[in-house]
Amino acid sequence: xxxxxxRRKGPHDGEATRETLMDAAEKLFAEQxxxxxxxxxxxxxxxxxxxxVHYHFGSKEAxxxxxxxxRGRSVVADIAERCDQLLxxxxxxxxxxxxxxxxxxxxxxxxxxxxxxGRWLAITGQLILSGSREMEALSAPAxxxxxxxxxxxxPDTRPDDLENTWRLAVEAVVLLLARAxxxxxxxxxxxxxxxxxxxxxxxxxGLVHALRGAAERRVRTSSR
Length: 224
Hints:
Layout lengths: L10 H22 L6 H8 L5 H5 L3 H28 L7 H18 L1 H17 L3 H20 L5 H19 L18 H27 L2
InterPro entries: DNA-bd_HTH_TetR-type_CS (IPR023772), Homeodomain-like_sf (IPR009057), HTH-type_TetR-like_transc_reg (IPR050109), HTH_TetR (IPR001647), PsrA_TetR_C (IPR041586)
Protein name: TetR/AcrR family transcriptional regulator
Organism: Streptomyces endocoffeicus
C-alpha cells in the first residue's frame, strides 16, 4: 500500500491549490477591496501555508490577474462572438443590439455562478473606479471588434464623443451590477434590477441620451 504521506503531489494537486487560493482571494477582494487585502490574509482564508500565494502565483498582482482571467475569459469570448455575429450582418446595427453585446455576457456570468460572478463583478467595479488598467489586457480579444461595431452603429457621431460615452455606458452597467453578493444565491440578482430586458433597455436609453446630449452641446458651443 502506498504511504499517503509520502505520495508525490501531481499536477492536479497544484491546480486544486491554485483554485483554493483564487476562491479565497476573490472573496476577500470583493468584500474588502483589492488594496486592503494582504497575501497573508489570502493564505489564511484559504487554510494554506504562508508561502502558498508566492509559490503558486509569485505575487499578489499575478494572483489578481489570475482571478480576473478565470471568469473574465468566458465573458470576453462571449462579447467577441456576439460582435462577430452582428458585424457579419448587413446594415447598421441598432443601439440596443450593440448594448446587449456587452450586457448579456455579464448577466450570463451571474446566471452561471451568482456568487462567484458577483464577486468578479465587484472586483471589476473596484478597478474601474480606481482607474486601474488590469482589465485592458483581458479585454483585448474583444476590444477592436467592439469598437468597430459601435462605430458602425453610430456613424454620424464624433469619434471622441462616441468613445467617451460608450466607455461611460459600459462602466455604468458594470458598477450597477458590481455589488458584493450575500450568502444567498438569490441576493443581489439581476431580477432585483428589473430583469434582464429592463437592464438592457436602461443601458441603451442612457447611451443614446448621452450621445444626443453630447451632439447638442457641440452645436450650442459652435453657435456661440
